[in-house]
């Protein structure tokens, strides 16, 4: 791929999410399955010889210096000693604080794209490791395969998933991930399961109870979605909730029945990240 190309940064869904413990540094041990879906942010890059990293499209409420795209580019520069720079254009479609991993996916796409465009030559494993400095969710987007993840979300056992159409609802709230993990009432002792035993439909989202109690809009969206599909669940630390349909027409019918004031969309489950093969 070239400098002028559009580089996708897909969303993820957590098909289940169990909290199995807490590390000494406060981070939580999780078990989860990440699935990539075909709803994406899009990034474009322009090369710079002055070495600067500039975000041409700053996000409301996010200072460019703390934007994950800029931080990812700087980290790769520092780690590789690369003297080139880039202007980054981000076309943001995924909601912030939605549990869809948008910011983390943007960061991973920056690492993959600039490693390719700058010719810095880091391996995918090195980029995964680098990405963990930016957030617990970044490595999986670099990894690029649907996967059963453990640890804080950096140890992977890849899984093959059946085709599915997802109806995703966006409750109009931004959930601060740290506040959900910090809640005293969060259940933190789910019994670990073996990756080989997991099948679609197994497990729940342990963060759901806290998120629904603190953000009633999530509870309302989930209650409506469960009437359409009993297996509906929240993704990540919220706010988005989703349901899987094996029949796309059933998913479309549920979307058509969405109550006034609710917003939602359909997405197809991907077999892998669209940049899974890029070097
Ligand atoms: C919950 C998950 C599930 O995929 O997704 P999101 O809802 O954010 O999409 C992730 O584990 C989120 O990963 P990410 O959003 O990258 O989190 P980070 O920026 O690393 O962490 C934000 C804060 O959440 C808490 N945190 C995060 C991950 C984790 N395993 N344990 C934690 O306790 C910490 O307080 C941390 O300071
Ligand atoms: N490029 C980015 N896109 C989205 N959020 C970003 C970005 N850079 C920094 N952030 C910050 O990260 C937070 C979490 O964003 P995001 O990854 O989209 O949500 P989640 O982790 O819930 O899936 C945002 O609220 C925002 O403050």
TrEMBL record:
Q: What positions does the domain GHMP kinase N-terminal occupy? A: 68-144
Catalytically driven reaction(s): 4-CDP-2-C-methyl-D-erythritol + ATP = 4-CDP-2-C-methyl-D-erythritol 2-phosphate + ADP + H(+)
Q: Which residues form a coiled coil?
A: none
Identify the keywords attached in UniProt to this record, alphabetized: ATP-binding, Isoprene biosynthesis, Kinase, Nucleotide-binding, Transferase
Q: What does this protein do?
A: Catalyzes the phosphorylation of the position 2 hydroxy group of 4-diphosphocytidyl-2C-methyl-D-erythritol.
Q: Which family does it belong to?
A: Belongs to the GHMP kinase family. IspE subfamily.
Q: Which NCBIfam families match?
A: ispE, PRK14608.1
Name used for this protein in its record: 4-diphosphocytidyl-2-C-methyl-D-erythritol kinase
* Gene coding for it: ispE
């Amino acid at each position: 791929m070239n400098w002028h190309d559009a580089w996708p940064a897909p969303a993820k869904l957590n098909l289940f999410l169990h909290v199995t413990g807490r590390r000494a540094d406060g981070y939580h041990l999780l078990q989860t399955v990440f699935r990539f879906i075909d709803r994406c942010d899009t990034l474009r890059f322009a090369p710079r010889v002055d070495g600067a990293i500039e975000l041409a499209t700053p996000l409301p409420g996010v200072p460019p210096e703390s934007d994950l795209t800029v931080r990812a580019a700087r980290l790769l520069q520092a780690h590789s000693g690369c003297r080139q720079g880039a202007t980054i254009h981000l076309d943001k479609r995924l909601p912030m604080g939605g549990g869809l991993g948008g910011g983390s996916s943007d960061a991973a796409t920056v690492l993959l794209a600039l490693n390719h465009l700058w010719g810095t030559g880091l391996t995918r494993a090195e980029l995964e490791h680098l990405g963990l400095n930016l957030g617990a969710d970044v490595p999986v987007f670099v990894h690029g395969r649907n996967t059963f993840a453990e640890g804080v979300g950096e140890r992977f056992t890849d899984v093959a998933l059946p085709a599915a159409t997802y109806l995703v609802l966006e409750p109009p709230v931004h959930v601060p991930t740290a506040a959900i993990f910090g809640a005293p009432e969060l259940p933190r002792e789910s019994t670990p399961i073996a990756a080989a035993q997991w099948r679609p439909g197994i497990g729940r989202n342990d963060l759901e109870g806290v998120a629904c109690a603190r953000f009633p809009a999530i509870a309302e969206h989930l209650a409506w979605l469960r009437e359409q599909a009993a297996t509906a669940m929240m993704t990540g630390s919220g706010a988005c909730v989703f349901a899987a349909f094996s029949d796309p027409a059933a998913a479309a019918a549920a979307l058509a029945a969405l109550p006034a004031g609710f917003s939602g969309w359909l997405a197809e489950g991907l077999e892998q990240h669209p940049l899974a093969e890029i070097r």
